[in-house]
From TrEMBL:
SUPFAM superfamilies: NAD(P)-binding Rossmann-fold domains (SSF51735). This is SDR family oxidoreductase. Gene3D superfamilies: NAD(P)-binding Rossmann-like Domain. Pfam families: adh_short_C2. InterPro entries: NAD(P)-bd_dom_sf, SDR, SDR_fam. PANTHER family: 3-OXOACYL-(ACYL-CARRIER-PROTEIN) REDUCTASE (PTHR42879), 3-OXOACYL-[ACYL-CARRIER-PROTEIN] REDUCTASE FABG (PTHR42879:SF2). It comes from the Bacteria. Belongs to the short-chain dehydrogenases/reductases (SDR) family. Coiled coil: none annotated.
Amino acid sequence: MTGATAYIGRAIALELARRGAHVVVSGRNAAAGQAVADEIAAAGGRAEFAAADLTDRAAVQALVDGIVQRHGRLDVLAASGAGASSDSLAFKLFMDMSGEDFETYIRSHWLARAHVIQAAAAAMRANKRGKIVAIGTDAGRVATVGESFIGGATGGMMQMCRVLARELGRDGIRINAVAMSYIADAEPRWGGASPALASHERGMLQQLKKRMLFPVHCADIAQAVAFFAGPESDAITGQTLSVNGGLSTPG
């Protein structure tokens, strides 16, 4: 479970452990990650922490190699994190971005998933089975002002998963994605936004809430991920499920 040190990632780790998985909690913050692993253990589950920077391809490969060495196999990958890190770029209008911004968005919202998916899939192929769930933003499915590259990178990641469903299915590996919008109990990260957007941050947030038919919490995302990770979804691959409280209804 990557990006598992807080909020959505933590909720996913807790839910997978509750359903019987041995969870490897991963992230950059060792103290926060160990706290999640300890929380799982205190509830009677099995967990450990392993540090990794998802934007570092070598570190991600070392993470997966370590899991296989210690446990003999990797059955499920829930790929979250990086895109919602506290040091990630927030919403920017396209004309306010630099070339460096372009690369940062792509790295955090797409490549961070691609690196770990490739490493995990290589490990899963040895056993001819595996479940991969990529977590991203609904901006990858719905045009959203201020998210041209957040949405563009995530849209690319989701299309990648659809193609990989065809390629990896031959090796018994299923891959799906879960998309989200505003999460009621996750801290919004607004830092570094374009001035025209930053001045309306609270208004943007309130508009999102008004348009949602139902509130969405971290636990709702966790349950969707657990569904894709479990046997109930064995007949499903290459799909993206939006858990957005009715904010939008992408096809």
